[in-house]
Amino acid sequence: MTAYLLRRLLYAIPILIGVNLITFALFFVVNTPDDMARIHLGAKHVTPEAIARWKAEHGYNKPLFYNDQASGVARFTDTLFVQKSLRLFVFDFGRADDGRDIGREIASRMWPSLAIALPTLLVGLAVYVSFALLLVFFRATYLDTAGVVLCVVLMSISGLFYVIASQYLLGKLWNWVPISGYQPGWDGLKFLVLPVLVGVISALGESSRFYRALFLEEMHKDYVRTARAKGLSEAAVLFRHVLGNALIPILTGVVVVIPRLILGSLILESFFGIPGLGSYTIDALQAQDFAIVRAMVFLGSVLYILGLILTDLSYTLVDPRVRLE
């Protein structure tokens, strides 16, 4: 298991380096520091002196890779690549354009994002798998057909509709839960009900159809016919054998949402006023704060790679043959 984990970690290093290099090229070669300064200063205040002053204040006045004005090792370390890119590998995100520490903001905002994303993931996974198993159990019946039609209808509706409709019905009209806002601690659970509900319902159609297709594919395999030939009931075959053998593709689907557990949901946090990393990213994009955007892109890459590694490890638990290979 240790050797397997080390191999996966070694595979992740060049991927992360490649993502970092591409991000650096996009932010400092394609979109140069002069362009950043012009965006922030505005058309009325763009002068060579103002651009140079803005770059000096934000640390963008250094060369890209080699500083011939410095001496010794500083020729390579006192550059934009080291100061703005390589430091991300030790999670030194620096400061935003408004002066606030990005690492401290991420540490404080990750908990509201987790408060929404974690229950949405767990509740959603239980609902989707259960609904898909129900449709497969009653496959080729009117209940199965009605369930598939319902999934298609839910998939055809925009996620913004669920947000607006839930805020109007549950928040404004019936006054069951707050429309938006956030409060830490147990007293803040009332603020999480609505975004979690919207997150689960908005993905119900797509996820349930995906899991239904997985279970139907397993139902036609030889081990299922063997289990039926031994006299097992349809429920036992479905829940004991089919569900167990479909765990690998289910785990693969869960990987997609693992980075969102920390990074948050952009739409939900923005519309429901949750001070998480999703709304933090949206605010940074609107304010053209490139330091925050770079940090969030790098953090998202790290989390996604960690999610892939955790999925590979979970494969070895579900199917030991993966470890042997």
Question: Which key features would you list for this structure?
Answer:
MetI-like fold, 74% helix, 0% strand, globular
Strand content: under 5%
Task: Provide the gyration radius in Å.
Answer: 25 Å
Regarding CATH, which class of the largest domain? Answer: Mainly Alpha
> In the CATH classification, which architecture of the largest domain applies?
Orthogonal Bundle
What is the count of distinct domains? 2
Kindly identify the CATH topology of the largest domain: MetI-like fold
Task: Compile the SSE list and pairings.
Layout: H1 2-30, H2 33-41, H3 48-58, H4 74-77, H5 80-85, H6 102-137, H7 142-156, H8 159-173, H9 189-202, H10 204-219, H11 222-229, H12 234-245, H13 247-255, H14 258-263, H15 266-272, H16 277-286, H17 290-318, H18 320-324
Helix pairs in contact: 1-17, 2-3, 6-9, 6-10, 7-10, 8-9, 11-12, 13-17, 15-16, 16-17
